[in-house]
Amino acid sequence: MVIGIDARMYGSGFGLARYTQQLIHHLLLQPTGDEFVLFVAKEHQGLAAVIAEHPHVAVRLVVADIPWYSLKEQLLFCYAIKKQHVDLMHFPHWNIPIWYTAPYVVTIHDLIMYHYPRPEATTLGPVKFWCKDMVHRLVVRHAVAAAKHIIVTSEFTKEDVHDTLGVPREKMTVTYQAPFSVAKGHLSAAVVRKKYGIHKPFVMYVGAAYPHKNVDMLVAAWKHYVREYESDLQLVLVGKESYFYTRLFPSIAHDASIIYTGFVPDEELATLYA
């Protein structure tokens, strides 16, 4: 069987990227006998080095440098997939071309943005945001309706998809997201902490700063906690710099109890967790 995977989000900088990364890495360890076609963005052609470690697995890389959540994705990605003659496609997210009619499996992580659309999560004006939200709902409903099967990452999401979108429970399989192993780097904990300005016991948040993550509320709660209890702890925010993190900078720039590290490599992150 020829199995295609939308790997355009492959990486380690955010949750969907990590999910796609670990999915591919572990599929390459399975002796399935299938051929895999990985559709990647240009910057992820480094996947070739990972594939080279598994010469027994048939894998093809196809560059599909098509932006997520775009009109090009709806119009061009469908054609790019069809050219590769895959038997089954796996989309690790709901952003599936609505004209794609071949068999596919989709992973639905949650319906947060379906339930709670946030205008502050975009730079679009109110009219454009409304249109974008309507398209999002259309694409999500199509994704689950046309899928041959749906992977969900928790029992809660399974019930939510069933209740909200009317998907039969038997069409969904819960596959929990597992931790993965990574070797700690050669730097000591003291050196890594010094690198990021961490010099006290700390509480750490790792992730994006999208509005639905409520990092701004975390920052406000932290400041209240420090004032109320005269805490000697630090709050460490770890995440790739983005528009939403830069919006937080004015509120944390002059607070010595809050450290923003930016992106932290896995090896150093493992050291901080330890």
UniProtKB/TrEMBL annotation:
Q: Where is each Glycosyltransferase subfamily 4-like N-terminal domain found?
A: 15-176
What the entry lists under Gene3D superfamilies is as follows: Glycogen Phosphorylase B (3.40.50.2000)
State any GO BP term from the record. lipopolysaccharide biosynthetic process
Q: Which InterPro entries does this entry report, sorted A to Z?
A: Glyco_trans_1, Glyco_trans_4-like_N
Domain Glycosyl transferase family: where?
Answer: 194-273
Keywords, alphabetical = Transferase
Q: Write one Pfam family the protein is assigned to.
A: Glyco_transf_4
Q: Which GO terms describe its molecular function?
A: glycosyltransferase activity
The answer to whether the entry has keyword Transferase is yes
Q: Does the keyword Transferase apply?
A: yes
Name recorded for this polypeptide = Glycosyltransferase subfamily 4-like N-terminal domain-containing protein
Question: What species is this protein from?
Answer: Candidatus Magasanikbacteria bacterium CG10_big_fil_rev_8_21_14_0_10_43_6
The organism's taxonomy opens as:
Bacteria, Candidatus Magasanikiibacteriota
